[in-house]
Amino acid sequence: MPRKVNYGLDYDDDYDDNYDEYYRYEVDENAETPSQKETIKHSVWRCSICTYDNDETMSSCDICGVLHGPLLNNSIYDKKRTECYQADSLRVGGCPIVSSTVVGRDEAVKVSSMRSDSSNLSTEKGKHNRLDEINILKNIEVGPPAGSRTSDNCSASVPEGWLDHMDESSVAVNLRSSVKRSLSLMPKERNVMVDDSSSSRNGGEANSLTSNLENISFAAKSGHSNDANPGRANSRAQYKPEKWMLPEKAEHSLTQLNLAIVGHVDSGKSTLSGRLLHLLGRISQKEMHKYEKEAKLQGKGSFAYAWALDESAEERERGITMTVAVAYFDSKRYHVVVLDSPGHKDFVPNMITGATQADASILVIDASIGSFEAGMDGTKGQTREHAQLIRSFGVDQLIVAVNKMDAVDYSKERYHGPNLLDAIDSFQPPTREFSKPLIMPICDVIKSPSQGQVSACGKLEAGAVRSGSKVLVMPSATIATVRSLERDSQACPIGRAGDNIAVSLNGIDGNHVMAGGVLCHPDFPIAFAKHLELKLEFHIHHAKEAARVARISSLLDSKTGKVAKKAPRCILAKQSAVVEASQEDDIVILQEAICVEEFSKCKVLGRVFLRTLGRTVAVGIVTRIVEQ
Ligand SMILES: Nc1nc2c(ncn2[C@@H]2O[C@H](COP(=O)(O)OP(=O)(O)OP(=O)(O)O)[C@@H](O)[C@H]2O)c(=O)[nH]1
């Protein structure tokens, strides 16, 4: 099944800031029913975003993925963090390090369905049934082979000059299956993925890490200075890659292209993706028959193609995508990683996870009357919001695919445009930072607790890793050794910038590896901070943290980017501003520190989104890390 990437519901609508951030229930010996007893025997912490009471063992919210104190109850973390803020330059060699043996690799991943708290997501089920399946099949035709096949019903275009000024970026998920295997990033699954039967034991050695840590230093300067971490900035530029890190030309004939499929709910993203995969032979006729049969049995015949990607029972029941599904196909020029994103507004955080991984995007627009307008609606529609988000993630290549043209009297004569595959092949290859120090934002962690195995999954943003490489795992600031790598579910010797990989780690406690963290080069640690200056809440790569804007430093002239007004009282729509996000008298910003970088140093770790009440209110970049 497709790999699923999920950051949970967007519960901003229910946001209540009168929460207790962390509290402990007392055991009530007088509780009358077993369930009463059960509910009160655990210590819990309440999520600052969705107010869900999480078990204390959860390092991030079970519902929405917001990080609680990273590595909660972890003395190493607490110690390190305290030290980070106390010292200008911290050597972590003296910290107690738990080392463990990680063996084997996880072949199988279990998926559990999402919590049903999302019952407020009503889809107009009736409307899906209106479709005549034959219409879809009739209107999506196969053209000549070898890269020019496409959906005729779907007009594709790459708008000229779209987002010219934006920078490239990406993050991604590991390719654990060739076409269809699913992996939910619900925090539960993120932390416990068990199929020990398939893990291979090879006796990876437990490493004593103390010696490795001797050489790590953290620059944690105080004050409002641009030079908060001067050492890091300079040395990154001076980094000299080793020869093995650079790809040889013949090694990969096809460049990997991470392609996010975005657009308003029900615009046909999954159907389009499923159809494409089927036409390209990635979904067999037999599998397709199975989807058709099952979909029909549930009275959802029109969703047969979507079922190839929306594979959880809840997604199928509701007829909506809730998590990002990942699938693959090859075009003439690219090994395309399809990131089929959810369109429903409540799952925008999941869509963001997909968007952060994208090199390019297809914005699917529903041409049918009423649906087109709904998507474009400035306050409720996701066509605009997705376009804006994808742009602010630095995705500067976009295909606008106009779908459901059969619903508006599609006429071949009237609609022109390249076919979808040709349009995909017309994308410029993404630029990869092979020769920079390693950066891999962790999108997913797969653990097999009984065997002590842990793998960090994500897209390599910069640099390269291979078996035996030492990596610094942030925010736990722990050194681990790469045991093995997987790409497309296959073991691979080297992972390079742009690759979606699963990195199996030796010599680290699984609790020290978390989604939202980053694997980086031991000599080039990325920052870990909570006081930032933004060029405008907080979705950042795979981490999410509650924040408050305390001070708007200045309004910027939208054309020149220069300061137009200092300390304005508010920002209006379409205005640009420099903002300090903070809480408690300008001292703190985020409730917990996160892995972050200034945009000028690492784009993917320096992009931010302000979302509140279920809407994206601002997008921006980190201009300065203001550390204590
Ligand atoms: N008439 C018509 N219906 C289509 C077409 N493509 C998709 N649909 C229908 O639109 C409905 C929604 O399709 P999906 O593929 O689930 O849409 P989606 O954009 O992936 O939905 P979300 O991911 O939940 O936002 C289904 O009933 C599809 O059969 C099309 O080209 N023409």
UniProtKB/TrEMBL annotation:
<dbReference type="Pfam" id="PF22594">
    <property type="entry name" value="GTP-eEF1A_C"/>
</dbReference>
<dbReference type="InterPro" id="IPR054696">
    <property type="entry name" value="GTP-eEF1A_C"/>
</dbReference>
<dbReference type="InterPro" id="IPR000795">
    <property type="entry name" value="T_Tr_GTP-bd_dom"/>
</dbReference>
<dbReference type="Pfam" id="PF03144">
    <property type="entry name" value="GTP_EFTU_D2"/>
</dbReference>
<dbReference type="GO" id="GO:0006412">
    <property type="term" value="P:translation"/>
</dbReference>
<dbReference type="InterPro" id="IPR001876">
    <property type="entry name" value="Znf_RanBP2"/>
</dbReference>
<dbReference type="InterPro" id="IPR009001">
    <property type="entry name" value="Transl_elong_EF1A/Init_IF2_C"/>
</dbReference>
<dbReference type="GO" id="GO:0005525">
    <property type="term" value="F:GTP binding"/>
</dbReference>
<feature type="domain" description="Tr-type G">
    <location>
        <begin position="254"/>
        <end position="450"/>
    </location>
</feature>
<keyword id="KW-0963">Cytoplasm</keyword>
<comment type="function">
    <text>This protein promotes the GTP-dependent binding of aminoacyl-tRNA to the A-site of ribosomes during protein biosynthesis.</text>
</comment>
<keyword id="KW-0862">Zinc</keyword>
<keyword id="KW-0648">Protein biosynthesis</keyword>
<keyword id="KW-0479">Metal-binding</keyword>
<dbReference type="InterPro" id="IPR004161">
    <property type="entry name" value="EFTu-like_2"/>
</dbReference>
<dbReference type="GO" id="GO:0005737">
    <property type="term" value="C:cytoplasm"/>
</dbReference>
<dbReference type="InterPro" id="IPR027417">
    <property type="entry name" value="P-loop_NTPase"/>
</dbReference>
<dbReference type="Pfam" id="PF00009">
    <property type="entry name" value="GTP_EFTU"/>
</dbReference>
<keyword id="KW-0547">Nucleotide-binding</keyword>
<dbReference type="GO" id="GO:0008270">
    <property type="term" value="F:zinc ion binding"/>
</dbReference>
<comment type="similarity">
    <text>Belongs to the TRAFAC class translation factor GTPase superfamily. Classic translation factor GTPase family. EF-Tu/EF-1A subfamily.</text>
</comment>
<protein>
    <submittedName>
        <fullName>HBS1-like protein</fullName>
    </submittedName>
</protein>
<keyword id="KW-0488">Methylation</keyword>
<dbReference type="GO" id="GO:0003924">
    <property type="term" value="F:GTPase activity"/>
</dbReference>
<keyword id="KW-0378">Hydrolase</keyword>
<dbReference type="InterPro" id="IPR009000">
    <property type="entry name" value="Transl_B-barrel_sf"/>
</dbReference>
<keyword id="KW-0863">Zinc-finger</keyword>
<keyword id="KW-0342">GTP-binding</keyword>
<dbReference type="InterPro" id="IPR050100">
    <property type="entry name" value="TRAFAC_GTPase_members"/>
</dbReference>
<dbReference type="InterPro" id="IPR036443">
    <property type="entry name" value="Znf_RanBP2_sf"/>
</dbReference>
